[in-house]
Amino acid sequence: MNILEVKGLTKVYGKGETQVRALDGIDLTIEKGEFAAIVGSSGSGKSTFLNMVGGLDIPTGGEVTVDGRKLQELSDDELTVFRRRKIGFIFQQYNLIPMLNVWENIILPLKLDGKRVDEEYILEITGILGLREKQKSIPGQLSGGQQQRVAIARALAAKPAIVLADEPTGNLDSKTSQDVLGLLKISSARYRQTILMITHNEEIAQLADRILRIEDGRLVKRQVEE
Ligand SMILES: Nc1ncnc2c1ncn2[C@@H]1O[C@H](COP(=O)(O)OP(=O)(O)OP(=O)(O)O)[C@@H](O)[C@H]1O
Questions:
Q1: For 144-164, what is each residue's pLDDT tens digit?
Q2: Considering only CA atoms, which residue is closest to atom 6 of ligand 1?
Q3: Residue pair 224/211 in contact by the 8 Å Cβ criterion
């Protein structure tokens, strides 16, 4: 089953001489459970692509379908709800709420949505991510790697159709990055969670099932060698 379908996705910023064609006709399908890394040089269009897929920005042309819904057909309000329910975001800056403890941060998206908290599942993911002992801690008491693991748990908590991660380990040292990404990979495999992750780091990209390379707003597909 295709969780994500992208057809002819185009994004043009600005007008006239200052116009930038950030995405130039991207076609892509991602199946449920795939863990794909997006690589490419600076300015190639990676973040623009992720923002369009996540419904954070509006494309100039083309279509994005997530879990059977065309994002372009949703109103602003519908899109906000759809994002919260169906898309998990992980950013380089962890975006945790400083006053809330680890557990509260993780379940916040569920609470906002009035959804039941599946405590057993949350306990399981916090266990996999090594956060069991830290549930009562606030973000300020955690290391960068721990904070990012909380952000991962939060993204997984609502069992979204797709998790979008933009340089999730950009602020972490190389060893911690590998550890955090390893845990993300284990979690995705265990729950067949689809993940699309931007990284500059080739070693980290190798952890993915599939590497997507973007050059000048176009996709150059390449399968990881077995
Ligand atoms: N809001 C914007 N207004 C105008 N141009 C933009 C805007 N956002 C991005 N761009 C341009 O679009 C192109 C693609 O940018 P994007 O941020 O998607 O690249 P990237 O591959 O994520 O880069 P990096 O690896 O440096 O984060 C660049 O030329 C950038 O300058």
A1: 999 999 999 999 998 899 999
A2: 13
A3: yes
CB neighbourhood size of 205 (10 A): 21
- In 3D space, the residue among 205, 223, 194, 221 whose CA is nearest the CA of residue 37 turns out to be 205
Query: What is the number of other CB atoms lying within 10 angstroms of the CB of residue 33?
Result: 15
Q: What ipTM did this prediction achieve?
A: 0.96
Q: Is the pLDDT of residue 226 over 70?
A: no
Protein residue whose Cα sits closest to atom 1 of ligand 1: 13
CA-nearest residue, atom 11 of ligand 1: 22
Task: Give the number of domains in the chain.
Answer: 1
Cβ of 40 below 6 Å from ligand 1: yes
- How many C-beta atoms lie closer than 10 Å to residue 172's C-beta? 19
The closest of 94, 98, 65 to 165, measured between CA atoms, is 94
Domain extent, residue 61, equals: 2-223
- Is the model more confident about 182 or about 97? 97
